[in-house]
User: Fold these one by one.
Assistant:
Number 1:
Amino acid sequence: MSFDPLIARPSETLCLCPRIDENTDASSTRRLALGFGLAVLAQALALAQLPQAALLIAPRAEQIGWPLALLLIGAALASFPAAALVDGFGRRAAFALGASLGVGGGLLTAFGMTHGHFPAFCLGALWLGLAQGFGLFYRHIAASALGGLRVLAGGALAALAAPLVVHASEFAGGGAASLLCAALLQLAALFLALRLPHGFSKVNASVSSAAAVDGASFRSATHFALATLAGAAAWAIMAAAMLRGPLSLALCGAAQSLIGGAMAWHLLAMYGPAALAARFPARFPPLASLVAGLVLLAGAFASLRLSTSPALLAAAMAAVGVAWSLANIGALRLLHEKGPPSRTALALHDLCLLGAAAAGALAF
């Protein structure tokens, strides 16, 4: 492989890295899907423990939602740094940094939980959120909507193992063991990130430009706004359900194993439909999937609020996951329907979604 000698300068060594077209690199897509899957497994373990641990160690009742909200705030704060680092330093450095934060966050939350130290627990949740924000950007690296769905499908495959991993970690030592296991999964994601191609994706920097006035650009901006606003509503409801579900199960006297299992199956429901959408994309039209997801999400959340039995609560959480998945499939396909958006637009999209999720958790 030859390189332009004019750019082979010590101050610009990053320019030597070849660009990669993810549309033709199946191996790269598989690695991205595996990295996203590890992030989903770590998320399952963290989400199964944060609300219940906060219920035990939070100084005041109104602070119970803080750890989950900080996790989501951290994910939102990571949106723009993740986009900037992927472009400026390559995916290897960006995703390795995110996974490193996840390792520290898992260890710190385990420490805060075992020692009853709520500030340390909240700081660890924030770090886990920063790692999750980097992990979510895996789905945007694939240059097309179908590639992004394939990465989401990797999350579905990982979520299949979530119930087993959650139960095994709880059997090994309870909540602290689950958080330590989340740290180990982030460590595995770190090693995977170090094996990713150190390249830079080709992106369309002109999408959603404020100066664009032609019809195609207007439709792209409209699709971006619709996907972002509808996706933000879906994430807000999902975050409220993630906090309300485990706490409602605990108040109903459900066993710890049932609560962890319900969260794991909820995660599987969140990503399972993406595997079908990646295999049969024509059966998931963007706008129809988005509308159906939002309608079903409202009904599932209402059922979650009204249910009083553990079985119905667990079923409602799974329904929330499926509805959220449909809404996100529609939003992702709508976002990429008129071509790949710029990294800035994708970061803004994630920031709005995760900010709405944090607001939903705090509002509960």
Number 2:
Amino acid sequence: MATSAAPAAGPSGAAAADPRRWLILAVICTAYLMVGLDLTVMNLALPSAQESLEFSDADRQWIVTAYALPFGGLLLFFGRLSDLFGRKETFLTGVIGFAVASAVGGAANSFGMLVTARACQGVFAAMLAPACLALLATTFTDPKEKAKAFGAYSGVAASGTALGLIIGGALTDGLSWRWCMYVNLFFAAAAFLGGMTLLHRQPRAGAKMDLPGVLLATGGMFSLVYGFSNAADDSWSTPSTWGFLALGGALLILFAFWITRAGQPLLPPRIVLDRNRGGAYVAVLFVGTGMFGVMLFLVYYMQNDLGYSAITSGVSMLPLIVLTAVGANVGGMKLLPKHGPRPLISAGLLICAAGMAWLTRIGPDSGYATHLLGPTMIVGLGLGLIFAAALRTGTSNVAPEDAGIASACVNTGQQLGGAIGVALLNTIAATATTGWLEDNVQGQPTGDQLSLAAIEGYTTVFWWSTAIFAVGAVIAGLLLRPGPLPATDEDTTGAPAEQTEAARP
């Protein structure tokens, strides 16, 4: 196994390029794809798992929530942990843990066993996600190569959720819901062997873990994600919703106060106060909120109203994945170096808004080619442009010892946005559906009327997603600086990030 240190510095003082850097990229992308898949891979398998393990409809939400809670709540902690104790070690531990949890989940013989396995998956996903992005940011030093690497990684990050629907549908229909868990073992084996062989031990930050900050941040994020999850399935007025949301908000306010006074804070304020990085984090938050309009409700529409099977509805998302990859690579390699993040992120959000607005034209007899193909391709292109710029920008101009926590901020924005999106859009859909039935039906509704009511809920969600993306475009455009990222945006040169930031307007 390889235990060597990172490549030695060259004559200029910059780290020499790792000759195996493209293989390292493949290992990183494999691991992160596994994490992204599990956000949705179980969604289409839930009915089969419910029938097999005999749990109630009310318990179904916990198969998804058990993964999301620790994932969203522990990202900042594990991001900093990777800086302090080593990214290779964090990466390998995360891969092993995720594989073991997946094996246990696949073999689950009870609801409790499956939920526990999903929660453990979420813990190790929170360990893996920031380590992956930090390893990417510190492995590539040449600007052109870094653009290509981030383009590839962005395509994986943006399309993993949709790919999870495809794989989940195929495995559930072709094999068993248990293979939605077992499939992770193949990804984990490849990532672990590659990581052991290729990854270098990197220099570690000399700071200590900020335990008060960990407690405040973890408690705050856990409470927010839990509160939004309850809102999605119960009601905004229940104490388990507003109580946890209020608690989460209060803890995060205390966290923001604490990090300005702590000697070695969990999240150094300089990470989020930079306009470019802050704009990238906000953009990912809006994307996470709005994208569930297409990832969740479009799948509902295809299955419940158009009669698509799990595999057909999953495959129908393929154009979105392809255009996401195209947008991420073109944006990351060609456009970002020349124009900077502001036009890419703003345009990407507006393109997503246009795609969601196009989806509002659906009806009970809509055809895939006429009503769904175009909008999903448009949304995919927009997502690719956003992620190509946001992932690179979110880790730009940070010192090597802060790469893990900066990467965690990107993932935290996406996870928190997803929790908000599911809760908000579920509520909007339910309200619109109920309102349509009250206005148009007297007595017991027919099947056709129920379908029309559901479509009213979907189109209302699509309009809200349109607005979310559009507002995100405006806010991100105001936050992000014009022009390309500075030439000093090379995390591994050893130049202190504060020097480059202080010289900027």
Number 3:
Amino acid sequence: MLKVGDKLPAGALQEFIEVEGNGCSIGPNTFDVANETAGKTIAIFALPGAYTPTCSAQHVPGYVKQAEELKKVGVDEIWCVSVNDAFVMGAWGRDQKTTGKVRMMADGSAAFANATGLTLDLTARGMGVRSQRYSMLVQDGVVKTLNVEAPGKFEVSDANTLLEQAKKLKAS
């Protein structure tokens, strides 16, 4: 399982882009995790699924609300990662008004979740293998903080917790 001090696993995530530009075409675009994190501080939070109750009511809205504060303390980008396809993540991002604040990154085949070891098997509930709920701060591809939720909980992966950790990381 991924831990503080580890480099993020190699791999790719997809993002649905609605406006052509910066070398991105309209539609799903694939991004290499190592390239996208190089030289940056990234706040990553992952969750079991788009449009699910806690994710839609608390997790994503918290990061949208705190996006400016996170950027003020040195976070270059905020990523929401979920085992959903890029079309679903794009539609959910529109609903959650994440544009310019949170990148909605799709891990459609759970390859990233599996590589991190932070999976949640919801096969018995008809949802297959998903990502655990967690948050982390990543600097230049290296995990600096990691907050993994206990099953069914939402206590440590919220935006306020990560904001406080980002403030401490900036001060150090």
Number 4:
Amino acid sequence: MSIKSAVIIETKEHLEQLMAEEKQVILYFSSVDCNVCQAVFPKLMSLAEGYPIKVIKISVAEQTEIAGQSSVFTVPTILIFYEGREILRESRFIDFLKVERTLNFIKSVQTGQSEE
């Protein structure tokens, strides 16, 4: 079993290309000097392991334009997109139960097991 890894965004164009190619993505906004970000990221990656979703890591210090356009003003921030639409936003104090429920929803929709 391979371990999921995050895609590191280097340019706005790179992000736009990935968003156009992928049906569902997690955008993870962080900063290298944020201790909470460093603690949250491995937990997010572990959680995302069992789901058909790409994790995209964005440094707010390096990608200020992307952060601003995404209305990200604090880190860590997790945005989950499904079919190009934001369906979950968690900032600072991440509720991993919400993240997991959202990932379960995406997985159920993809496998045709919609919730009744």
